[in-house]
């Protein structure tokens, strides 16, 4: 993944080293390690973006809209354009965090983000379960995810985090869940939406991203992901991977099939390692082994 120092991926801030993990469908996720050059307060800035900052290590002081708090590895900051922020490092240590930036258009499609759009920034803490989910998400991104899977995973993590925060407590999503339980017509509509998504995925060439599939079926990515999981018991990513692996197995059975690197590219995997991991998780063998098992042996004398 791209890595650099001196700025975050979009603008000059305090000195830092950062690593971009991915940028799918109106979102950007990256890791930052701050470099302490002085211990006083930084200049107050309006960041101009919708951001989630999840602490990983170290501690510092943070001022959000005039309120000062200590930020540590348990901290979560949820900010929006117009929030005024500054930071200080009186402890002399650096800090590291994961940052998720999200376009307003993406948030506007999510009922559970209404509080974030309407209110000023929120700062709080993650519990052990949320922190582990955050770290596992980062690990998966660093191992390599295609943009479809990364988008769905980020949407699911965002839903979990917003529910954890005070910004989505018993909000519109809760009302949707109650409506689904009591309205057969809603359940039928959700089944049709899931079926339509299956059609799009089954007839595509696996280059469509999550946002593009959602546009094809007339839903937001967040809503489509939730409905598909509820109706089928499977995530969109898992269903798409099942389709991709079956297509890969067909190609592996061809005597003159393409090399694995090109096969990975043809079916939308990040790289050959990603292809190998997904195929092995699905069927228990890596592609190279499966190619030997599936290619028909030519009869003697042919």
UniProtKB/TrEMBL annotation:
Amino-acid biosynthesis is among the record's keywords: no
Domain HTH araC/xylS-type, chain residue ranges per copy: 191-293
Against PANTHER family, the record matches this protein to: HTH-TYPE TRANSCRIPTIONAL ACTIVATOR RHAS-RELATED
Q: Name one Pfam family in it.
A: HTH_18
Among InterPro entries, the record links this protein to:
AraC_XylS_family_regulators, Homeodomain-like_sf, HTH-like, HTH_AraC, HTH_AraC-typ_CS
Q: Which domain of life is it from?
A: Bacteria
What keywords is this UniProt entry annotated with? Activator, DNA-binding, Transcription, Transcription regulation
Q: Example GO molecular function term?
A: sequence-specific DNA binding
UniProt protein name: AraC family transcriptional regulator
